[in-house]
Amino acid sequence: MAQGQTERVLSDAEFSAAVAAVTSAFGDPTRRDIYLLARSENGATATEVAEHFDLHPNVARHHLDKLAAGGYLEVVLERPGGGGAGRPSKRYRAMPGGTGLEMHVKSEDLIVRLLGNALGLLPPEVAEAMAEQVGEEYGRALAAQMAPGDGQRSLRSALQAVAGALTAHGFAAHTESRSGALAIISDLCPFGDTAVQHPVICAVDRGMVRGMLAGLYGDTAPTTAANRAQGATACVTMV
Description:
single chain, alpha+beta, Muramoyl-pentapeptide Carboxypeptidase, domain 2, 10 helices
């Protein structure tokens, strides 16, 4: 930490979100061991993990994708034979700068406030469309890290993967069945007071859901049924 800077103490909600993210990523003992293997200098592929731990390749890939979705591993595409023809393989490596287990908040408060202020300068419908587009593009990028080229999943399993990624980003999310439809419930909001002052920023996480589902399942049209910024106890995104 630079001289003269003070470390901000996490609020109860932020601490809970950080704990939930770490628990989601590392609560499984096998996944913890897989992460330790991927921390090596050369990282690991799903095939190497499967062979090392005697797992089915799909199970190994699931654990690696979960760690990648949480921001603990990065995915590097490698061409066979050092750049030759053929389908590239995915090698998972530890993200630079550590795991984030120090419980620091991932999003910078200043950046979030500036984003809210910038959106507040635009007409509401333009700001909402822009916020959702930004979220969707980020969601698609997350989906590409989670399971690029692995084919489509069922909607329920895709939603569970999306909820896990949202939890890793501070939303403390889970899936539920509501009124005959599937929903993602987010009990926390990493945007904090900025979402209360500029509710349009809530379109970002709706866009993230749309983008991740597009990559993991197919095009959907998620809608916001409730959000904390308007006084609800949780944010609810219906799919």
